[in-house]
Amino acid sequence: MKGMSKVIGIGFLGLGIVGSQVLSYIKENKDYVEEVYGMEFLTKSVYVRDITKKRDVDTSDIYLTTDVTKIVENPNVQVCIECMGGAGMEETYDAVMGAIHNGKHIVMSSKKCLAVYGTKIIEAANQYNVQLRFEASVGGCIPICRSLMQMSKGDEVTKIYGIVNATSTYILSAMESKKITFDEALQQAKEKGFAENNSSEDILGFDTLNKMRILLRLGMKVDVDCNDVNPVSIENINDESTNREEPIIRQVFYAEKTMQDDINCFVGPQILKSDSMLKNVSENYNMIFVESKHSGLRAYYGKGAGGRETASVMFDDLIDVVQSNYRFEEIKPIGCNCLSGDTFEL
User: Fold this and answer.
1) 326 Cα distance to chain centroid
2) Active site includes 159?
3) What protein family is recorded (predicted)?
4) pTM strictly above 0.70
5) Is 36 in contact with 322 (CB distance < 8 Å)?
6) Is 21:69 a contact under the CB 8 Å cutoff?
7) Binding site feature residues
8) Pairing state of beta strands 132-133 and 105-107?
9) pLDDT value, residue 319
């Protein structure tokens, strides 16, 4: 099919660890994409904050710029891949909306931006008839967003819960298995690349809260105000708690619809039941359960962190946005009741 391939212009918004891995993925799979899909992904330009910075991927044939408008307003770019990472949430939001307003399909990774502005971004994508995907924002390599987008069309999701933060999971499981302190486990997580230098949002539960909000938009079509949920930190869990054979403690999220048409939510450390499947989640793995009215309980499991793993789902999203014509359903604001961990069992 070479010679007949449709050229798709790609623009990157950010080229850090994840962005570099996605660009490498595109380069490595060039022949495969042409052969199977009849397309050629051609990276036209990349927005970065420092052009002179040394990178892990060859950019010698790519236009680098510190002006984001050179990407979002480029008529030769059909898809923008957002990997802005450490950039401010507002800056990310402005760049994404600029791309949407200029008719670009979007593949996103910034979960905090999606958690806060996700409803506005989804509405804009529908309005401007562009495709939006953000699989990399929750669950690492687990295709949970794609599953919820399809599942909830013919079923009513009533409950979503699980473990979605690799940093906290590594810390707690290392404290259990290696009999080490919280600080020692955190340091190991950083050395293995499962934790940022500043891991406060992971430890305090805000990262998990952000991911829960994204999943609720897709699964239940609701927007929960984060001010209604008070995450519980794992920082006060000591080695005495984790040195026992039982119980096993993990940072979890839990959300269920109520008969009053609102949501019961919890984010924080939870003592797991002796027969809980979540007890098997350790190191950098995630596990998410979705319960629906007709299909019952489903489980999703996989690596929740890692540059290569994240890049793989963003590459899948890239193929999806140029082939699909998905339209998001209306998302409604909803009240939330903040639970305590002793009011439910997992």
Assistant:
1) 19
2) no
3) Belongs to the homoserine dehydrogenase family.
4) yes
5) no
6) no
7) 14-19, 111, 196
8) parallel
9) 96
